[in-house]
């Protein structure tokens, strides 16, 4: 993909392995045409909002399952885990009915079609993220909570001041997973968007295929640009990412 993105049309069509000359013009052409900058910004906004929403809902939920006793806690948690077996594509229909306002009344208008909230709100809860955070939170020594409770700390204070700072590696990891999940949105935007105002970069590449036709060098340049934000994010977070993975292998 990277090699083809630097080729001429002829080299890409004839399936050369390496370009004779690096055609940086391909990237300039893609970046300055077809509103690619705008669609990339849309994806950044959508992905960032989804990440913040997932963290906002998942961290308290995971802490509750890890540290707080309440009726049917284990049954509810196991039910959530079982629901992970439902294919995501099946959930698109109920999501669609909800954002069209056919199941519950919606704030900010009768429908969320063609809107930022329609793209983001249905994905602000993630059971897999709750599971990962819960497993990590359970590794935090109970003695810390006992000491904090003796000082009069509430669960909220303990979560904010102790648990979150100690859990930065896993929080960064689930943020990275969530960002990639939102960045790769394709079927959902195609389903709810009839206008181009909030097209993400994935949908724009789909349209770009029809625009440039068999110019595979430009298509590959567009694909490389679309994955650069993810690679950049991983580059800056890889230390915490690897730390969280290694910590899951430690005994509690």
How is this structure best described in words?
This protein has 252 residues and is mainly alpha-helical. The chain has a single domain, classed as MetI-like fold (Orthogonal Bundle). The protein is 69% helix and 0% strand. It has helices spanning 2-5, 9-13, 25-32, 36-67, 73-83, 88-99, 116-120, 127-137, 142-150, 155-166, 168-183, 187-192, 201-212, 216-247. It starts with a helix and ends in a 5-residue tail after the last helix.
**Rg over CA atoms:** 22 Å
CATH class type: Mainly Alpha
Please, what is the CATH homologous superfamily?
MetI-like
Low-pLDDT segments, ≥5 res: none
How can the largest sheet be summarized? none
- Total domain units: 1
Organism: marine metagenome
GO cellular component, one term: plasma membrane
Protein name: ABC transmembrane type-1 domain-containing protein
Subcellular location: Cell membrane
Topology (SSEs and partners):
Elements: H1 2-5, H2 9-13, H3 25-32, H4 36-67, H5 73-83, H6 88-99, H7 116-120, H8 127-137, H9 142-150, H10 155-166, H11 168-183, H12 187-192, H13 201-212, H14 216-247
Helix pairs in contact: 3-14, 4-8, 4-11, 8-11, 11-14, 13-14
Quick overview of this protein structure:
By secondary structure, the chain is mainly α. The protein contains 14 helices and no strands.
Identify the notable features of this structure and list them briefly.
mainly alpha, 14 helices, 252 residues, MetI-like fold
